[in-house]
Amino acid sequence: MATEDARYRQTSQYQLWSFSPAQLAAMRETTNAAARARIAERLSYSQPPSAAASSTNTPDPSGSTPAPGPQLPEFLTPAEEAQLVAFFTSELLRAGDHAEMSDEIKATAAVFFRRFYVTNSIMTYPPQDMLIVALFFGCKAEGSFVSISEFGRTFGKEHPEEILAGEFLLCQGLRFALDVKHPFRALRGAIMELATLPDIDPARLGAAEARAREILRFSPLITDAYFHFTPSQIMLAALSLADRALAERFITKTFHYVAPPSAADNSSGPGTPVPDSGGGGGTPAPSKKSRSGEDNKAEVIGSQVRDKVLGAIEACRDMLSRELPERREHWTNKAVIKAQIAPLRKKLKACRDPDRWNLVELQRRRREQAARNVDSEDEDGGRSGKGSLDADAAVFGEPLGAAKRRKVEGGRDGKGGGGLGDPFGPPL
Amino acid sequence: MSRKPGSTSASAGAPAISTEDMCPVCKTMRYLNKDMEFLINPECYHSMCVNCVNRLFNDGPNQCPYAGCHRTLRRKGFRSAFFGDLAVEREVDIRRRVAAVFNQVEDDFETLDDYNNYLQMVEDLTFDLVNGSDARRRQAEATLQQWEAEHRAEIERNRRAGRDADDAARRRIAAEREAARQRRVDALREAEQEKLDRARSREAELDSLASAGPDSASRVQLKRRGGQVAAQRALDAAVGAAEAASGGASGGGGAGGASGVGGASDVGRLSIRGLKEKKKPAASEGPYDPFGGLEFTPSRYRVLPGVHTHPGIEKYKSDPAHVTGGYDFDDYTARAMFEAFAGLAVFVEDEKEVGVGLSASEVTAISAGIAAVGDKMDLD
């Protein structure tokens, strides 16, 4: 096994945040279903059947009354959610451009944002606020520490709390995996490697790099590429979109190993030193595993692996080609927004979570509850164990609210969390 | 072994703790006899006062005076209890006895597991002896005696080895203490000597100054310096001697330790599983690896520091802001190259679905193969 791959497998990006398309779709389904059920419950809870009586005893935290009339609004489907997340990702990238942030910060923030909305529904937490939070937190994760008041002024936020309120929430949603591996530096490495070849024109390399970087700034961030592919694969896919021949050259140069004829199963004759160049279906695997070193080499840089890598890059290339940088305008096009995004946002406004939509209010209530928990622990020593347990659970996303509500949700939480199999409990 | 005092005394046959103030046999109170002393016999651990023991057993063996206890006791077997709780006293006696028989040490075993199994076996046996039911106790007793009879020689050898090791340790400690004392005495004597020397040289100086004229002061200075050099040389010699002595002492200590180990290791073959024939040299584990065996040599590329470069970093190579701080451009190159190749053959879809190193198609092929084999086996 190649040492580079082994090292990549140690990263949190691989261990926590890489999924097959089927897994990702299943997770989004689960998140969507959980959010639907919870929001439906909350809406009916905060809005008693007697609609005439104004809900004075249960003050609505968001300040806006949910649409009266039919009890439950129409919820977003997972596909609609994904489209909205893509739209807000493009908004995030635009906001990053506005604040003149570096590519890494914007990319990290975008990946944070998308990861957050894998286990959290866009109906639960407000995406407009979360994208600012993701940008701020992305700055910190990339080691560029801006002051919160200055940052807030850039985005017209008067109070730092509006940004800080969502910060821990975001961290929870990211399962505290804050290191995002990007393909930008990998692109530099690939260009360096290609520059060592004698027959490559530097101008061509420069053009290819510029174009590939342009693609990397946008396409992988707005698609699911970061979930399905490794940075080097994304990088090569972008390079292949920019200059296909260069990317293929890079891969053939890397996976150049051809099994020597003695190790290969050559029944045709020992005197023919014509190794299969691997252009077709790949070399037959050596039948006799006599030389483990040779086998290992074939495993790391053999032609079979090359074909598989080419397949992965082709898949990634397909994904990226759906969202080339030229599509930036698509996401800001007024007509498109009016036709596609505006109806979704309207729908979102109707079905959003009344308890969680206002992050500042949410945080204030969580703090109050935590303080209350501490008080009750002081008063009642016998139940302190349970209290601290609840506090611990709250760190990892136990829903807040009355104990009764928690009990009602308990069974469902078990199912949802089991499906995702993540160590930090059910989706928020 | 934690157990509540007296909880199993009924089954073990030992009495509950008797009050310290009254002999249970003759009912004499401590109030009447201040020097009253209680004795027990390890046959049954029933306590009684010295007077009773003398009265009952001076004329030879007799039955225990406790109601229901039919043991025959002898005067010779009586002693005073060390522990107030006689159940503990009994357990300690039994443990001492078992430990004398089962006296293998860890070095006698091949692996730690074997040693632990052995300890577990011994502990089970001890537990049976201490508070097992009658049948179990008898069985454990039989096992113990059988073992003792069969392995008398080994037990004796181990015991001697243990004693030798103890003796060696004691001797070594004593020798070290003696050496330390000797060093202290030497140091004191040296300090005394130095003081004397200084006084003498000062006197000599004064004498020479008094006898010679004022022009010879510089000569005196020179001479004095020469004396200092000589003293320094003597000091060096002394330090060298001390080092040699300490080296010898430690070498002696090492030899002593080695002989102790050798004594313990030449044990004959026993039937306990995992006992090793001879001591194997411990395999060295090497230095601690903070990366848990992760390899850092690239397998798909080679970094050529001079060759791999990028127009984007060229201008910084002469930029004082970067160069002065010690920024290493080769590090940057290595990192960029690593990232370009890392995870190139990590296929997320396959690996997250079925595991590292297999593709989904291969898995289906394998499972098909297994199914085929299974069918064949069914046919057979």
UniProtKB/TrEMBL annotation, chain A:
Domain Cyclin-like: 90-172
Keywords recorded for this protein, A-Z: Cyclin
Stretches with biased composition (Low complexity): 44-62, 267-276
Family annotation (CDD domains): CYCLIN_CCNH_rpt1, CYCLIN_CCNH_rpt2
Chain positions covered by the region annotation Disordered: 38-74, 261-301, 366-428
Superkingdom field: Eukaryota
InterPro entries reported in the protein's UniProt record: Cyclin-like_dom, Cyclin-like_sf, Cyclin/Ssn8, Cyclin_C_2
Gene3D superfamilies: Cyclin-like (1.10.472.10)
Keyword rRNA-binding among record annotations: no
Family membership noted in the UniProt record: Belongs to the cyclin family. Cyclin C subfamily.
PANTHER family per record: CYCLIN (PTHR10026)
Protein name, as recorded: Cyclin-like domain-containing protein
Lineage, top ranks: Eukaryota, Fungi, Dikarya, Ascomycota, Pezizomycotina
TrEMBL record, chain B:
InterPro entries: MAT1/Tfb3, MAT1_centre, Znf_RING, Znf_RING/FYVE/PHD, Znf_RING_CS
Coiled-coil ranges from the UniProt annotation: none
Basic and acidic residues bias (residue ranges): 192-205
Main location as per UniProt: nucleus
Cellular localization per UniProt: Nucleus
Domain RING-type: 23-65
Classification via Pfam families: MAT1, zf-C3HC4_5
Keyword Heme on entry: no
Region span, Disordered: 192-225
Alphabetized UniProt keyword annotations: Metal-binding, Nucleus, Zinc, Zinc-finger
NCBIfam families attached to this UniProt entry: cdk7
Official protein name in the record: RNA polymerase II transcription factor B subunit 3
Organism of this sequence: Remersonia thermophila
The organism's taxonomic lineage, starting at the top: Eukaryota, Fungi, Dikarya, Ascomycota, Pezizomycotina
